[in-house]
Amino acid sequence: MSTKPRSVLLSTVIGGLLTLVTQSAQTAGVVQCAEQERCYGVAKAGKNDCATVSSVCSGTAKQDSQKDAWMYVPKGTCMKIAGGSVTPPAAPAKSKN
Prior knowledge:
The protein is α+β, with helices and mostly antiparallel strands.
């Protein structure tokens, strides 16, 4: 087999694989977002997905089941988890000193 047909075949295979991987990644991202919901009060310390009242970063919950820390769970399962809530906790009242 000469070099030219082999390189054409290899290029075709690599191009096909890249197309397949790209399409799979795009489809998976859309499906994942559509089937997830925020669940407050169930994240383990340091495992929350996004900001809390006291922090602007993910992975910063100070304690397990922190009420303002949330994580994504499959849609429809949050209310089945002990302590889980799909609504954020009320903001603490500010003292008037």
